Amino acid sequence: MIDLALYQPDIAQNTGTLIRLAACLGTTLHVIGPAGFDMSDRHLKRAGMDYIELATVVRHVGWTDFEAFATAEGRRLVLATTKGSVPYADFAFRDGDIVLMGRESAGVPESVHERADGRVVIPMRPDARSINMALSAAMIMGEALRQTAGFPMLQ
Fold first, then answer.
1. How many percent of the chain have pLDDT more than 90?
2. Over the Cα atoms of the chain, what is R_g?
3. Mutual angle of helices 12-25 and 41-48, in 10-degree steps
4. Under 8 Å CB-to-CB from 87, ≥6 apart: which residues?
């Protein structure tokens, strides 16, 4: 299975949207703290609507905690970044990968870039800055699951 991870998310509504995506796709969502908003169940429930009950959300206190988890599990980290050189549809995703999305306001620090096993980009017009993080995650997760036949609800 392919998991999705959010690095210190800033916007509760994006996190809620991705909780809903994870619930619908049957994937696990990892939230790497600290978040830029109140991560209480009450606030997430509002953003994620009733899908939070269907979702598997794992909270990590910080990057060190998440990195230890990923390393112990032998998971590859695939960073979505505007600084990537491989279009996401050309990247060879593997079962067990974790797609890592950066903070909406700042992406991820260089140390996280260096730790990533792969860096993918969504090709777009040169005069555009970026696509909304939740939309980007949905695009990349769809392709990763397509490549790995990772749609458990169809099996």
1. 76
2. 14
3. 70
4. 120, 121, 122, 123
DSSP 78-109: EEE-TT--EEGGGS---TT-EEEE-BTTTB--
Other CB atoms within a 10 A radius of the CB of residue 150 amount to 20
106: β partners: none
Tokens found for residue 93? 């995703």
pTM for the full model?
Answer: 0.93
Cα–Cα distances (Å) from 73 to 19, 29, 33, 101, in that order, read 22, 15, 19, 19
Average pLDDT over residues 52-65: 93
> How confident is the model at residue 38, as a pLDDT?
80
Which residue has 């994870």 as its token pair? 22
